[in-house]
Amino acid sequence: MPPMTEQAPPSPTAKTPRSAVPKTVWDLVFTLIIPILILSPNILGSGISVSETVFGGGTTGNVRAYLLAALVPVVYVLWDLIANRNVSPVALIGGAGAIFSGALAFWYVDGFWYAIKDSARSYLTGLLFLISAATSVPLFRVFLDAASIGEKPEDRAATQQAMRDPGVHRGLVLGTVVFALVDLLGGVVNSVVNYQRVTAKFGTDDFNAQIAAVNAVMRVPGLVISLAGVGAAIWLVQRAVQARYGTGASLLEPARLAAAMRERGEG
């Protein structure tokens, strides 16, 4: 009988790779779909509700379901930061915003004050950006700076040098102001919709159901408004960069920016 030979464990690369789920999908699941399902008094027409089935129903059950729906996105965002060890300024700002939203969940209000509360994060963000525009470091600069973190040191240095240029700095200030104003506008729109549609008393089935409906309705418009603010701000900054370093320069492409600066003898 031939001697038995020890077989090596199968290599992980031998397994059929599974396609990774895009992070955008996970974001959608944990920040929109799961909260809506938790708030729904009749999940997908099944007659089941988290408030009734898990928390016993009534005002207490509805409040607990409301808190759970509000805290799931907070936990997801914080877990994402910790798991990915993301300590960039942008990530930390996002984490702070998530904590702020989580804290507001314990402010039990309805009607006008709920409409204000639901947009409080947008209002706070807009105000912080406006205040930063009067300082030497407008917050939109922080976002653009974070985009160059993974670039080569010389390309990142070119980005830093460009953002210190007075003309580009003015573009960053203007972009920060525009972003802030659009974010504030988005908050106002969201407050108006909530005030019109969330009319039930806090702690009721209808209150939770109305919140779920508004969250679903406002997701796309809110995203469009945010993207419009970012797009307008980037356009203003890019216009300033190209006016200073030429049409081929781009703050979003550090290598091209560095090349344009070298052509001018500034790199």
From TrEMBL:
Keyword Transmembrane helix: yes
Alphabetical UniProt keywords: Membrane, Transmembrane, Transmembrane helix
Membrane found in the keyword field: yes
Transmembrane residue ranges: 25-45, 65-83, 90-109, 121-144, 172-193, 213-237
Protein name per Swiss-Prot or TrEMBL: MFS transporter
Organism for this UniProt entry: Deinococcus koreensis
